[in-house]
UniProtKB/TrEMBL annotation:
InterPro entries: K_chnl_dom (IPR013099), VG_K_chnl (IPR028325). This is Potassium channel domain-containing protein. One of its GO terms (cellular component) is voltage-gated potassium channel complex. Keywords: Ion channel, Ion transport, Membrane, Transmembrane, Transmembrane helix, Transport. It is found in: Membrane. Its main location: membrane. PANTHER family: POTASSIUM VOLTAGE-GATED CHANNEL PROTEIN SHAB, VOLTAGE-GATED POTASSIUM CHANNEL.
Length: 102
């Protein structure tokens, strides 16, 4: 959350990020906090190379989101095929059980 700066010698109208304990945040602005959250959720981590500009970070965020979607699409297909195979297995099992009872 942001609060108007009420410190001596601070610029009028300047805002600081403050955490829930009332301490100053380690993030310079909300965009830096957003960048940290997206980077953490994408499990990309802070490596040797990272974008410096806001536009570079925006491109990286878009790439992370598309990468996650690209990974999820095949997983849904695998899950769907597994479900079909499992239902077929259960059907055959029920059929065999019925034959044994007769």
């Amino acid at each position: 959350m942001t609060f108007p700066a009420e410190l001596e010698g601070s610029l009028p109208g300047k805002r600081f990020l403050v955490n829930y304990k009332g301490e100053f945040s380690s993030f310079d602005d909300s965009f830096s906090a957003f960048w940290f959250v997206i980077l953490t959720l994408a499990t990309a981590g802070y490596g040797d190379l990272e974008p410096v500009t806001s536009s570079g970070k925006l491109v990286a965020v878009v790439a992370m989101i598309f990468g996650a979607c690209y990974t999820v699409m095949p997983l849904t297909l695998v899950g769907s095929q597994f479900n079909k195979s499992y239902l077929e297995y259960k059907r055959r099992e029920a059929l065999l059980r019925t034959k044994q009872e007769v």
